[in-house]
Each structure stands twice: as structure tokens, then as C-alpha cells.
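lol forgot to send this yesterday, sorry. C-alpha cells for the thing we talked abt
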């Protein structure tokens, strides 16, 4: 089932279900921090304001309460997230 991802101070979109949250945000040209893309480094963290995600791999990085690693999870419900530093869109 498709879920809506809402970015605080940003916009909402419906990601393709096969995409991780990080890939889904990148598909919308959201400028995201990342390094390992495998749950090790923690640089892709976003605040989960509302909703649920499902991890396909157990995150290794320390994840503070209320935060999620966008590289290794999928939306499990409609989500509202807050991106550290705000939502920036890449210009091409
Ligand atoms: S990019 Fe390293 S934990 Fe997500």
C-alpha cells in the first residue's frame, strides 16, 4: 500500500514502495546527508514526527529517540518527518 511522506517545512509525496526512505527523498531531489547507506554511520538520520517505519536491516549506528535512519527503512504508514537543517531541494 502506498503511503504519504510529509516533510516538515517542505512538501508531501507518495514514494514508490520499493524505495527506502532515503531513496524516496532523493527521488524528489531532496538534498540528503548520507555516507554508508547501510545503517552504520548515522548521517542519514531524520526526525520521525509521526508514523511508523520498518527497517530491512537492524541499524548499527546510534539512533537518538525519535530519529530514524532513512537509508535502511521503508515507510510502514503515512509519515511526517523533519530533516535536520530543513528541507533543501537540489538544483540541477
Ligand atoms: S547513510 Fe549511513 S546510516 Fe544511513
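and heres what i got for the seq, position by position
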Amino acid at each position: 500500500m502506498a503511503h504519504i511522506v510529509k516533510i516538515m517545512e517542505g512538501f508531501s509525496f507518495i514514494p514508490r514502495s520499493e524505495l527506502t526512505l532515503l531513496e524516496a527523498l532523493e527521488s524528489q531531489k531532496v538534498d540528503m546527508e548520507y555516507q554508508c547507506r547501510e545503517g552504520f554511520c548515522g548521517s542519514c538520520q531524520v526526525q520521525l514526527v509521526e508514523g511508523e517505519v520498518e527497517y530491512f536491516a537492524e541499524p548499527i549506528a546510534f539512533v537518538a529517540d525519535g530519529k530514524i535512519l532513512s537509508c535502511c527503512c521503508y515507510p510502514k504508514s503515512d509519515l511526517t518527518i523533519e530533516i535536520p537543517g530543513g528541507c533543501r531541494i537540489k538544483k540541477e
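The beta strands are 5-7, 12-13, 45-50, 53-55, 67-69, 73-75, 79-82. anyway ping me if u want another try
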